[in-house]
Write a structure and sequence with these properties.
Strand content: 25-35%
Helix content: 25-40%
Strand order of the largest sheet: 1-2-3-4-6-5
Radius of gyration: 17 Å
Distance between the termini: 60 Å
Structural class: alpha+beta
Order of helices and strands: HEEEEHEEH
Shape: globular
Amino acid sequence: MISIAVISGVLVAAIAWVALLLSMRGKRMRMLASRLNFEYLDKNLPERFSLSQPPFEKITCATGVIHGKRNGVDLCVFDGILGNRGSGSYRTFIGVQDGQMRLSNATEMLGHALQSAEWTILYGNQKNLGLIPWSMNTREIEKLISTLPL
């Protein structure tokens, strides 16, 4: 039988591992924001962007938020959960304020898109068996941003 001390040790190690991953991700997102001349907002979304408006209410949290403009168009990149906390899946989201629907081929870029009157949010499938709380590394994000048809 496994002792409580062993279970507690494993639990503490798992929490420490997740904290280390999130810390490293935050550092990388800050570095990406700097390279792109974006602003690192941590867990705050830009004022003009809300997850409470349909269809974005399917995204239940946002972390590692970076925000800036490319060719005069607002972009917002963040990690979050698609679905309910506890049963949803981690994703990296790229929001583009494209009221004129410049991203009509949005689903071709990452596979999935949510669209409102003002914003399109692109996201791909979860990788890494759901063990890492994001789905794109910063190099992939930077490459995708550079190829957006803005």
